[in-house]
Design goal:
single chain, 113 residues, mainly alpha, 74% helix
C-alpha cells in the first residue's frame, strides 16, 4: 500500500534527505582537513578496501553460476578476463566495466543463448 504525503511532509522528507546527503559528503573533509595527515587506520583502509571490494564483487557476480551445466560459467569467465585485460590496457574503470558488461550481455544473449 502506497503512503501518501501532504506537501509539508514531502518537503520535510526532501530536506532531511538532502541534509543527510550533504552531511555524508562534507563529513570526511571536516574530519580530515587537507592540511592534516589522516590517521594511519584511514590510510590503511584506503589502501586495502578497494581490492577487497573488487574481490567481493567478483564473488557476488559468480555466486549463482552453475559450473556443472549449460555453458559452465564460460560467459562469466570470458567477461572477467576481458575486464581485467581492458583495465590493464587502458587503466579506465568505466571502460573496463562497460566493456565487460557489453561482452557478457552479448555472450549470454547471442552466443550461449
Amino acid at each position: 500500500m502506497a503512503v501518501r504525503l501532504n506537501a509539508f511532509q514531502a518537503a520535510v522528507t526532501i530536506l532531511v534527505l538532502a541534509a543527510g546527503t550533504q552531511l555524508t559528503r562534507w563529513l570526511p573533509f571536516w574530519l580530515f582537513p587537507e592540511n592534516k595527515e589522516p590517521p594511519a587506520v584511514v590510510t590503511y583502509l584506503g589502501r586495502v578496501l578497494p581490492p577487497a571490494c573488487m574481490g567481493l564483487l567478483v564473488v557476488y557476480c559468480l555466486r549463482n553460476v552453475d559450473w556443472l551445466s549449460g555453458a559452465h560459467g564460460v560467459p562469466e569467465l570470458v567477461s572477467i578476463a576481458a575486464v581485467a585485460a581492458l583495465h590493464r590496457w587502458k587503466n579506465n574503470v568505466l571502460l573496463s566495466i562497460a566493456g565487460g558488461t557489453a561482452l557478457y550481455m552479448f555472450l549470454v544473449q547471442a552466443v550461449f543463448a
